[in-house]
Amino acid sequence: MAREILTFQLGNYSNYIGTHWWNIQESSFNYDPNAEPSEIDHSILYREGQTRQRQVTFTPRLLMVDLSGTLQHVPRTGDLYEQPIDPEQISSDPADITDIEWETGKVEVIKKETPAEKHPYQVDLQAGTSSNGEAAAEKDYNFSNTVANWIDYSYTRYHPRSINIIERYKHSNEESQLDTITNGMELWKDYDFQDELTDRVRQYIEECDGCQGFQTLFDCCDGFSGIAIKLLEHLQDEYGKASLVFPVFPPKAPSFKSADEPMSDSIRVINSALAFAQLSDHCSLFVPLSTMARCWRNTGEPRSLPNLVYDPVNYYQTSAILASFLETATLRYRLKGAVTVDAGGYISGMCSDLNAYGRKMAAAGLAFPFPLGNTQDLIDCLDQLDGKSLTVQLSPNVNVRNRAVVQSVSARGLPQNRLKRPPTAKSAQ
After folding, report:
1. What whole-number distance in Å separates Cα of residue 225 and Cα of residue 185?
2. How far is Cα 219 from Cα 189, in angstroms, rounded to an integer?
3. What cellular component terms from Gene Ontology apply here (predicted)?
4. What is the per-residue pLDDT across 153-180, written as a single tens digit (0 to 9) for each?
5. Is the entire prediction scored with pTM above 0.85?
């Protein structure tokens, strides 16, 4: 039975996280007909289509929104269904345009801006292999220091309707132009923007045989929170399906245009507070995510993962951690075996289990990588914790420890023969 999900990514940092997430999905695809089938039902998050040349495509069922300038060298419609025109192959000499009978002296040539330089990873992806013959996946591109935006490390190819760019605002790493939640809500009132986005939602839903709901990532501390609230309100009114939401907070507190540091701090607080106040009315469950311990007026210390070293202010590295959480936490409703609501195979079942007491906000935790030794069994690993929490919190301003009333736990990569001690072991289990 079909259980499709439509995913939304609203904001620059959300797209950093989402890009990692889709890259993880792509890496798990197995094209060997003799290999063991995957336990994950990829058709839940992906859609099958065809190009004009009747080539079969498998692209994310996704709508992403970002500001002008983030795509750099990639066209808004992507390059999967139509190959972009190479600017180098277009003549700028009016005399060379022979198929149009215009007076060459009256032809005005308008040149576009110089296209952004492609990241070496994208160059190698387009060429098929790296310059020295290595497979692109095996070459060290030093992404942490060379990535200028999420498009630089994106392996996934998107459907033409997936990418939505807000031309009114320009992306900047120094300051955010789409600053307040009210500006985001005002942008939603723009008929062209709202109509285009909601029409693309409708097209995706009409393709589904049994859409089970929506999952949304959005930047919570800037104007994308306003777009998210209005979008969630639209989804609730028009479709009435389960909606799992992840408000995300970047590791560096953004500054806003024409605002000093204290004013920027206040804007972030107001954006977050107003978003949280309205989320419970328009979604089934929301789970704030950040690698920072505190994301209120000032950001706190970064979360310390015992078995992982990372740069706490690096967008590429921190977003990879959050994407790893999403990939594992959402397995519950993406597995092939769990096809009923009671078995947890639907996003609505997961949301209802976690808000059984009417509290629509949940906290996230992650053990990454899982601290299982080479010679240990799972029971030994848990025993050595001695009452300490297995996971590190990924929700800011939260420290649940072992006080969770209701929780949903997903673990992966644990061999079945190491879940408990063998029968020959003398110690008690």
Report:
1. 8
2. 19
3. mitochondrion
4. 999 999 999 999 999 999 988 888 899 9
5. yes
Beta carbons of 357 and 405 less than 8 angstroms apart = yes
pLDDT digits (tens, 9 = 90+) for 277-289: 999 999 999 999 9
* Burial class for 11, CB neighbours closer than 10 Å (0-12, 13-18, 19+): buried
CA distance 385 to 333: 29
In the chain, % of residues over pLDDT 70: 85
DSSP letters for 206-260: HH-SS--EEEEEEESSSTHHHHHHHHHHHHHHHT--EEEEEEE--SSPPEETT--
Instruction: Return the residue matching tokens 């690993």.
Output: 381
Band of pLDDT at residue 209, cut at 50, 70 and 90: very high
Which of 79, 130, 37 lies closest to 335 in space, CA to CA?
37
Residue 130 token pair = 């790296």
pLDDT tens-place string over residues 341-391: 555 689 999 999 998 788 899 999 999 888 888 888 888 888 888 778 888
Query: In sequence order, which ranges of 28-64 are alpha helices (DSSP H)?
Result: none
Write the CATH number of the domain with boundaries 4-30+38-78+144-393. 3.40.50.1440
DSSP symbol at 269: H
